[in-house]
Design a protein that fits this description.
By secondary structure, the chain is mainly α. It has 9 helices and 5 strands; from the N terminus they run E-E-H-H-H-H-E-H-H-E-E-H-H-H. Strands 3-5-4 form a 3-stranded antiparallel β-sheet. A two-stranded antiparallel sheet has the order 1-2. The longest helix has 23 residues.
């Protein structure tokens, strides 16, 4: 007899049918009712997460557009073959530099909705500060920019949000026990590139 077990917060949960190989699907309408009944509780933590994220961008880069460029370069590096590589947060940020495929100014401009000349100027500024390196249209994110971009506070704040969400959902019979923020944060860091 095959049993499927799911591990959440150190406890064992199993599907109702021991022969089942599918997760029980949550009803999106039921989830919607719980969320809409608790909007104020959740918004307080979601807004804190967003504020901290935006403040961190300004604190580190003093420039929102530079940060968008860096995040797009990170995204492109994953698209180029790292998409299914599983790294913890420590493994990912231990890299000396991360490269992306060839990216044109036009592609950056169109995808980020930033004028091409602004993109050119921001790239020059990032390069002068040794945050990126360019070889033609190929970009390399340096260790120093990866250290600046590392989302420690963002992961803490999103973990608090998910903890509050799980507490609300755990009041429902179909959800199971709530999860604490420490476990959620460790999970995000362990499977960093998955998220």
């Amino acid at each position: 007899m095959s049993r499927k077990f799911f591990y959440i917060n150190g406890s064992q949960r199993k599907s109702d049918d021991p022969n089942s190989h599918n997760l029980k699907k949550f009803d999106s309408n039921e989830i919607g009712l719980v969320l809409s009944a608790n909007t104020q509780v959740l918004m307080k933590h979601w807004i804190k997460f967003q504020q901290e994220w935006v403040n961190n961008i300004f604190r580190q880069f003093k420039d929102y557009e530079k940060y968008l460029i860096i995040m797009y370069l990170v995204y492109k590096s994953w698209e180029d073959g790292n998409l299914f590589k599983l790294y913890s947060m420590n493994q990912y940020y231990a890299e000396e530099n991360i490269s992306s495929s060839s990216i044109s100014l036009l592609e950056l401009s169109e995808n980020l909705k930033i004028p091409k000349e602004t993109i050119r100027r921001k790239l020059v500024e990032l390069e002068k500060k040794s945050l990126i390196k360019r070889e033609g249209q190929k970009f390399f994110l340096t260790k120093s920019v990866l250290d600046l971009q590392k989302p420690d506070n963002s992961i803490k704040n999103i973990s608090i949000f998910f903890e509050k969400l799980s507490i609300l959902l755990s009041a429902q019979d179909w959800f199971g026990p709530s999860m604490n923020r420490g476990d959620i944060e460790l999970y995000f860091k362990k499977y960093y590139t998955l998220f």
